[in-house]
Amino acid sequence: MSKQAFEHFEVPAEMRVFAEKSVEQARKAFDEFVTAANRAVGNLEGCAAAAQAGAKDVTQKAMNFAEQNAASSFDFAQKLMRAKDIEEVMKLHSDYVKKQIHTLAEQAKELGQSAARGAMDTAKPKKR
Fold it and tell me: Which of 12, 35, 34, 15 is nearest to 23 (CA)?
């Protein structure tokens, strides 16, 4: 498609409303999933104390990261629905990808550190 075609490209208002409702419904469904998953995580108590604490910490961090990443994706989708032209879409996408790469790297680092701490705590000899 030529640049001229994109300059006159406009998403119809009905399509924007539909897309925004779809994103909002997906966000609500995800929130319900997270609530159920958090309840399930809470029911897993009963393991050895050190292993449980380490696993719970890693699991909670992973759940928090999943929530943050999903929220970021929903925000990105809503911004896309409001984009005025292809240049804005490309900028939004570029910014989103850069931010997510940085965020995911930080999250992986933090999860790795938490898992290592949990493993070390589990391996420590127990004091009597």
Answer: 15
Residue 41 · residue 60 · CB < 8 Å:
yes
d(CA 28, CA 75): 13
CA separation for the pair 86, 8 (Å, rounded): 10
Q: How many residues are recorded in the chain?
A: 128
Please count the helices (runs of H) and the strands (runs of E) in the chain. 4, 0
Whole-prediction pTM value?
0.59
| pLDDT value at residue 3 | 61
CA-to-CA distance for 120 and 98, rounded, in angstroms?
A: 33
Report the alpha-carbon distance of residue 121 to residue 119 in Å, rounded.
5
* Two structure tokens written together for 110: 């933090």
| Residues contacting residue 92 through CB under 8 Å, at least 6 positions apart | 76, 79, 80, 83
Return the SS3 of 117: helix
